[in-house]
Amino acid sequence: MSVEADNRTEQELIAAILGGQKHLYHALVRPVEKKIFMVVLAYVHNPSDAEDIVQEAFLDGYRHLATFRGEARFSTWITTIALNKARARMRRSSAHAEVSLDDAGDEDRAPAVSPALLRDWREIPSEALERNEVRTLIRQAVSELPESFRTVFVLRELEELSGEETAAALGISLALVKVRLHRARIQLQKSLAPALRSATEPHRKKRWPSWS
Amino acid sequence: MELNCRHVWEFLSGYLDDTLDAAVREDVERHLAHCEVCSAILDSTRNILVLTADDRVFELPVGFSDRLHARLNELIGEDPTSPEKT
């Protein structure tokens, strides 16, 4: 990656790449590659499939860079390409024949999940993430979200797309994005609040012996 | 309007994103001021979202970036023509 590339805007980078400085494509890709991977992984589950899809999406992105219009961010555009590839792959796999990102899934019609009820919350500092156990709890909770919620959640919270960008990337309405994001958050609170609290307070005394 | 806890939960996401109407937001805040359960739910949700979005939680497979850029290099190297312009 060339140093001067860091200070260029996305549009300037793209113009330079199309103008012949092809190696600058690496600089366009690097800041977004992790987020794209996480989005695809949230969708396909299998890291090696996700890696393949991400590679193909960035290769396609390069081949079709001239068709990219600056209305969206590069990462949003690549996300759309990657999710299309992920869908195509899932369609080929019979186990997921019924899955479609565009459908309002059963999850949307199910009654809303209630949050975990707490009387107080002591802030868990981000240093807690140094512990593998804590990271695993969070990853697991995210992976247990229904797929349609998880995809919206990852795009909004991890890739930091706006509601509108998420709606466009998934081909669903903004209202549905909001509903799914809300439900994903509540479900994570429900599963993670108690789990993280006990994981970060290892010395808390149990009220009853566990065998009683 | 007097909101009960369930109503407040429905507005939690909008409250966090600051997308509620001013009047609704006020109702939610009035409820939060005296409801320790809903306050704790809000605080824990916000805390969990910050932790979940932390870069350390989700890691790339070892060598992911190297493999990706090696593949890009193959393409960029092998095909000296610029992408087609439309």
Verbal overview:
The complex is a heterodimer of chains A (212) and B (86). In chain A, 37% of the residues are buried. The termini of chain A are far apart. Chain A has 9 helices and no strands. Chain A folds into 2 domains: 3-96, RNA polymerase sigma factor, region 2, helix turn helix motif (Rna Polymerase Sigma Factor, Chain: A), CATH 1.10.1740; 125-200, Orthogonal Bundle (Arc Repressor Mutant, subunit A), CATH 1.10.10. In chain A, 60% of the residues lie in helices and 0% in strands. The longest helix of chain A has 27 residues, at 174-200. Chain A is mostly helical. Chain B has one domain (5-78). In chain B, helix 1 crosses helix 2 (22-34). Chain B has 86 residues and is mainly α. Chain B is elongated, with a radius of gyration of 24 Å. The chains are: A mainly alpha (212), B mainly alpha (86). Chains A and B meet through helix 2, helix 3, helix 6 and helix 9 of A and helix 1, helix 3 and helix 4 of B.
List the keywords.
heterodimer, A: 212 residues, mainly alpha, Rna Polymerase Sigma Factor, Chain: A, Arc Repressor Mutant, subunit A, 2 domains, 9 helices, 60% helix, disordered N terminus, B: 86 residues, 4 helices, 67% helix, elongated
Oligomer: heterodimer
Q: Tell me, what is the CATH class of the largest domain in chain A?
A: Mainly Alpha
Q: Mean pLDDT across all residues of chain A, rounded?
A: 85
Count of the domains of chain A:
2
Largest sheet of chain A: none
Shape of chain B: elongated
Report how far apart the termini of chain B are: 56 Å
CATH-defined superfamily of the largest domain in chain A: RNA polymerase sigma factor, region 2, helix turn helix motif
β-strand number of chain B: 0
Report the C-alpha radius of gyration of chain B, rounded. 24 Å
Q: Structural class from helices and strands of chain A?
A: mainly alpha
Report the mean per-residue pLDDT of chain B as an integer: 88
Q: What is the helix content of chain A?
A: 55-70%
How big is the Rg of chain A? Answer: 20 Å
- Domain unit count of chain B: 1
Low-confidence stretches of chain A: 1-5, 96-102
CATH architectural category of the largest domain in chain A: Orthogonal Bundle
Total helical segments of chain B? 4
| Structure classification of chain B | mainly alpha
Strand tally of chain A is: 0
